[in-house]
Every structure is written in structure tokens, then in C-alpha cells.
Design a protein that fits this description.
This protein is of the alpha/beta class. It contains 7 helices and 7 strands, in the order ααβαβαββαβααββ. The protein has a 7-stranded mixed sheet, with helices on both faces. Helix 5 links the parallel strand 4 and strand 5.
Amino acid sequence: MNEQVYYQRSLVVDVYPHLKMALELIDVSMPKVAVDVGCGAGRDALFLAESGFRVHAFDKSDAAISRVEEVCSRHLNQTLFAQVSCFDRFEYPKSSLVSACSSLFFCPPDQFERAWQNITESLLSGGVFCGHFMGPNDSWAKMERGDLTVHTRTEVEALFYPNFKIIDVYEHDSEGMTLIGKKKHWHTYSVVAQKIR
């Protein structure tokens, strides 16, 4: 994959509707602190910073964080803090929003449980999770690469029980394209859920 092409194209794609929905669910009395999990080139991190959040963003790719520093330069180290890290080792701050759009399925299976525990524990009561999970029909899942975490819908819903109220789940199961123009079958679950305890 041409990493630079991917990052450039990701910056011109619209912010996911579920992320916009998530912002509307957060009570105005909560601290405006967000985590962007697997932030890529920083499209969502920039959106969150410009929406008034103090944003903690991370990605495992040095190239991604370099793009974040470039794209988000006016917010960098003021309201937006970016670092190279992996899913299970990042120090998640207490937050009102965790966004994991198109990233969490890249968490290796042996890291997922710890990463998910850290994510859920970092969210304050009333805080919102917004993100994607990969389903078993996805062409990447069928390749059995070993580096992707894949969930059935039942498994996805179980992740949020009993500490969250699931607000919405959108299942995408159809042919499509990647950002670098390759055909693939997508099977993902986009979830918005609010922590209730």
C-alpha cells in the first residue's frame, strides 16, 4: 500500500456521520477530552480539535503522526497531542469521547482485549464511544492474515454489555473500494455507544 497516497486521500473524505452523532450525545457539562485511536493522517483529530476538544491522538505509524503534525500544526501541543503508540500501550486519559473510526480492527488479536479494557475504562460515565469493527465477511478477514481483529455482530454487541447503551449500529456488507483505489468486499459495524456505568 502506498502509505502517503492513503493518508492524502483520507484527509479529503468526509468525517463519518457517527462521529458527528457522537458529539451531539455528550453532555455539555462533561470535560471536552477526546481520544482518536489509530488517528491516521489526522482528519478526525482536526475535526475534534476544531469542535473544541482537547484531543489525544495516536497511531502506530511514524508517517501518520508526521502528517498529523503537518495537518494539525495550529493545534499541536496546545489542544491536540499526537504520538506514535500501539493500541494496548497508549496511556488513555479520562475522556468524554473515544473515536476509533476505521482503526480498531487493525489491533492485533493478542492486543485487543487489553486495548478494549483500556478504552472502556478511560471513558467517563456518560462518555461516548464511536468506531468500527470488522465483520467476518470482509475480504481482508477471509484472507486470515492474523493481524486483524474480527467480530461477529453478536460479539460486537457483547463488548458493550453491561456498561454501555448502544445508540446505533450500522452494518456495511458490500463491495467497495479502498482509499488507494483497490476493489474489496467491506464488512464492518459502525457503532455509537454511551457509557452508563
